[in-house]
Amino acid sequence: MRTQIQPKPGFYQHLTAQQVTDLVESLVKHQELPRQYGYVGTGAQDWDQQATGELFLARTRLLDANRSYLSELISRHERWDVIDLGAGNGWPARQILSWLMDAGRMGRYAATDISADMLQIAERNIGTWFDGQIPYEGHIIDLARQRLTDHIGHDGYTARLVLHFGNTLFNLRDCDQAFRMVRGSMTADDFLIQDRYIETPQDFLARVADNVDSAPRLPPTQRFLVDLLGINEDLYTIETGYDPLRGERFKRIRLTTSASIHFDTGPVVDLDEGESLLLNRDPIYRPVELLAKLGEHGFTTIHTFQSDDDKRPLLLTVSVAA
């Protein structure tokens, strides 16, 4: 006997028709819920509330440790435009925007995200932090499929800092393609500034073992989309682990009963008992592997810096289009 499920009304309010189609296709073909759709509606609000957590403080320390280098980089051009990949609430970019403002070299700030709700939060925050002095642009872009140049104009001569703070591109099913499209949108005067947690699979699995919960729940931004689909918590168990074939850590839910999801349009999606749905993927890289990946994507890395956190260091990279 299959449990019959219908998405909640908010599902259709928060996602566009194209996004619903993409999500259904991902369920059918890949048994996966696209991570980026967890940042709409209250999912965006949940993420905004997490913005001062451990990662953000670690990033602040990382950028402070590299301020001398980044200030010298900023001094190379009279003006910089900033493109923020997966801007979230704008907090990750705040430090660099502040330095550009202090140097009198701030041009446009183009925030990209797949979530209109997230972009509205970023616009509000940037306006508050900088008293409306930074020209803000919000662009809804699916970085898995769309080139930056299809949405963000360029005058042909202003240098740009392309910021990738967080996991936006890494969480995509084909992050290699996404990186190549970003590379294809950059000019010789542009720089990609990125940070990334560095660890081994063994380190990750040890962290998972140290944080076993007798009654685990999904984080709010991951649970949000599952709840919107109408998949109640009593219908699944949660699995966290490492896929050695793909070199990725993952979080997924495994159904404890068969179910059918009835969408307003499109096919009924049947899910069998024991079937899993992937909620999050994240490649695990050592420093040399990450630099090699950037090279494969068409970048030359000109600066690296690793934080001194023994347990889970952050690696900052500054790269140019090769």
From TrEMBL:
Domain called Histidine-specific methyltransferase SAM-dependent: residue spans: 22-192
Pfam families registered for this protein in UniProt: Methyltransf_33
GO molecular function, one term: methyltransferase activity
Stored InterPro entries: MeTrfase_dom, MeTrfase_EgtD-like, SAM-dependent_MTases_sf
Domain of life assignment: Bacteria
Descriptive protein name: Histidine-specific methyltransferase SAM-dependent domain-containing protein
Source organism (scientific name): Nocardia flavorosea
